[in-house]
């Protein structure tokens, strides 16, 4: 992941459509948290056109327009370039660790909700949706297991959607033909949790599951009645009854 810390300095910002807009953008760019490849870029814009830029890897100002080229020549000989060369340390290396420790290293665990949005009917498959809410950072893996096997087809998922408050949500849909006794679960892997979060689907039973449960429960009740009756009969027959 590339991180860009951006500071917008508007030197004379006009919000009017017929006004002029002069500003500089300071970027600290890195792709690793140890900041080993950190680069500092300061770009000057007039309206939306960049005209001069300092790049810490280059170590000098480079102009893009005639005005920019003239300025670059002058600034590269003066104190301006010395000041810019110190910005990588002073500005980027100072601020980025603060951002890492206060925001980027933080992880917030998703809340998982698993529900059925379509029952199987007339040869059409059923559909389950597994939703993860309120997690950070956005990198997440949501997948399905049927009897312990990862499902590779009949799954569609949204991208990670920003809630606009640093938290994200994502939804994964599974289409399946219900069969008796299968075990379906939704698995979520996220940096906030060392172990994968597994939520098992324990919703609707199929008709044949229901029949088995009724037969089993009836047998159980019958067994209790018969053994109680047998026990009472034995007690009543024994000589020390009452
Ligand atoms: C800064 O300059 C280096 C060396 O020319 C270049 O590789 C890099 O892409 C430049 N960075 C940006 C953001 O333009």
UniProtKB/TrEMBL annotation:
It comes from the Eukaryota. The chain crosses the membrane at residues 213-234. SMART domains: IGc1 (SM00407), MHC_II_beta (SM00921). Residues 1-19 form the signal peptide. Keywords: Disulfide bond, Glycoprotein, Membrane, Signal, Transmembrane, Transmembrane helix. It is a single-pass type I membrane protein. GO terms for biological process: antigen processing and presentation; immune response. GO terms for cellular component: MHC class II protein complex. Residues 110-198 form the Ig-like domain. It is found in: Membrane. This is Ig-like domain-containing protein.
